Amino acid sequence: MTETDMVHEQIDTIDALMAHYVAGSLPEPARVLVQAHLEMKPDNRSLVNSLELLAGEALENAPEAAIADREGRLAAIFSPASSIPAPRTAARPENALFPQALRALLGFEAEDVPWRRRLPGFKEYSLDMDGCEVSLMWIRPGRALPAHTHKGMELILILDGAFNDERGHFGPGDISIADEMVDHRPIAEKDRPCIAFAVSDGPVKLTGSFRQMIGDLIG
Known about the structure:
Order of helices and strands: HHHHHEEEEEEEEEEEH
Strand order of the largest sheet: 1-2-3-10-5-8
Number of helices: 6
Strand content: 15-25%
Largest sheet: 6 strands, antiparallel
Structural class: alpha+beta
Number of strands: 11
Shape: globular
Distance between the termini: 35 Å
Oligomer: single chain
């Protein structure tokens, strides 16, 4: 894997993703995606708490190492000028769709997304951040996205609605993890639009038959 990859080893399960979250090895948008997931599904924080406990025990058992310029570093830590105020986060509006972590990253709520129409029945807002492509997606109920695989890693957090693909069902708070080993064709469920937050570090590669591809592109 290259220096631009999301992490330097494969993430193929939620457990592995949580381990990288605890280790602090995820780029900022992926870290926010996991944090938003934990806001939506707080019961899953038990795994993170267990991993943090294991990491703390490993740190306590690590051999001591000398600190260069120990006195200078301590002085900098306890200097009043070095104190950093807690970040301000705007209060989450009642019935807000976006988790607070996502709102803090993007700076707006769902109703303020500057959507751009990419395909019939598919809107997107995207930007580059910390070496990753970050995007919000809106998929019309029942709309199928073109079959594709990935030339990197893609994390998708479902914010509202749901989609189904060859691997199963993904609803609010669920995370889809896809890489070059996954070839899928997500289809939004028919009762409501699917809104999702995605972080990827590589482009997609369209797959499937030419007839299916054309049909999915025109919606």
